[in-house]
Every structure is written in structure tokens, then in C-alpha cells.
Amino acid sequence: MDPVQGNSCPKPVSNHAGEIAMKLHLSSCLLALALASAPLAHAQLAGMPPGTQEALLNLADQPASRTSFSFDRSMLQVAQNLLASGGMDANAAAAALTGISVDNYRYPQPAFYTPETMNSIINAYHTAGWKHLVNANQTPANTAQPRSTVTDLWLHFTGPDINGVTVLTRSARNMSVIQITCELRPLDLVHLSGHFGIPKVDPNAVMVPAPNGR
Predict the structure, then answer these.
(1) How does pLDDT run across 75-107, given as a tens digit for each residue?
(2) 20 to 30 A from 16, CA-CA: which of 38, 110, 120, 157?
(3) Contact 96, 184 (CB under 8 A)
(4) Which pairs from 175-178 meet CB under 8 Å and 24+ separation?
């Protein structure tokens, strides 16, 4: 365990690919983002933007204990099997996921997540070309001092496909960062929802692109 240091959630807005300001499934939102991203695609590997790791370490107002791990071949095989069971060709599924890493942070007291630091993280992902999804049901107060879990989802596209996923979850005493390198269609990601830290498709959630494309 390594000692480390530590958003307001916007109202729903429209996306370039369609008006998304209503309750919807994650699949619909992913498809809209894929359509919006296709004209801007450029071939590059998705990775955590510069400075983001340090910002995450200092996001909360107190030190945390940290554990990290990466999925081994057998764990990746489980994810690939999920894709194959959802209709993806077995050979394509085997190549679709290339890495999953998880960082977990545990705080000794209920944490305050500094909005300014969270904004710097959001800006870094935006500058690097990632698409940001948030749950519009969240309130600014809950994102800074969570009573219920707050989830931020970033997707990086190459053409219509997703080649990078980052999931940031925050609660009163825990924070997790899940990073996935992949080559997935938007609907493939839906098959993985509820697994490996990817948010489960929730019919009661209002998942929307963050305001101003951030």
C-alpha cells in the first residue's frame, strides 16, 4: 500500500450526433459519440493525458492508501469471452482488449474532492481528444462530497471505434481509476458494462456528454 495525496456535474446538454437530454441506455449515448467522433479521428494510441496521474493523486483533500493491479492473460480472456458471447467474432474478441489496469484509493476519512483539481483532469482529457460522459442526476454537492457513487467515463475514439476507456468512480472513502486499451465498437462496450469497473447500463441513469464538450 503506497501513501498518496489527493466536479461539479453539469445539467444534460445536446451532443453533435443528436439531442441527448433524456433517460437513455449507455448504448445510445456511445453510438452518438461514435458518430460525432468519426470525422475527427486520427490514428494514435489512447493513454492517460500528461499530468493526469499527479492530479488524481491530489484530487482528494487527504492522503490515501493505494493498491494497483493489471489484468493478466486469464482475466483478459474472461472479458474477451464476454464480447464473444455478445456476438463478436472469437478472433476479433481476442484482439479487442489489450490491457486493463485498476488503481484503488482508500481514504481514512470521508473525502472532499477538490473541484478545481477535477476541472484540471477534465480539461486534460478534453485537450487530448477524449469524450466525457457524466450522470446528469448528480448534483454539484454530491460530486465534491459524495453520499452516493459518482462516475465519470471517458472514451477515446479512432474512427467509429473506441480505443481507450477511462472510468473514474468516487465515493466518500474510496476512489477507483480503471483504464482499458482496446479496439471496440460502441455496442461491444455495452456487453462489458457492469464488469471490470465499466458502469452498468442503468435505465434510471441519465448519461450525457459533459457540457461544452468537456
Answers:
(1) 888 888 888 887 888 778 777 888 889 999 999
(2) 120
(3) yes
(4) 175/6, 175/56, 175/59, 175/60, 175/64, 175/104, 175/105, 175/107, 175/111, 175/113, 176/102, 176/103, 176/104, 176/105, 177/56, 177/102, 177/103, 178/100, 178/101, 178/102
Residue 88 CA to residue 94 CA, distance in Å, equals 10
Q: Model-level pTM? A: 0.75
- Report how far apart, in Å, the C-alpha atoms of 25 and of each of 6, 117, 120, 165, 205 are: 32, 29, 28, 18, 8
What is the number of residues in the chain?
214
Structural domain of 164 = 2-213
How many angstroms separate the CA atoms of 164 and 185, rounded?
Answer: 11
Tell me what the pLDDT averaged over the chain comes to: 77
In the structure grid, which three cell numbers stand for residue 135, read together?
450522470
The position carrying cell 477515446 is 156
Number of structural domains, the chain? Answer: 1
Instruction: Provide the CB-side half-sphere exposure for 57 (13 A, CA).
Output: 11
Residue 13 has pLDDT above 80, yes or no: no
Half-sphere exposure of 208 (CA within 13 A, CB side): 22
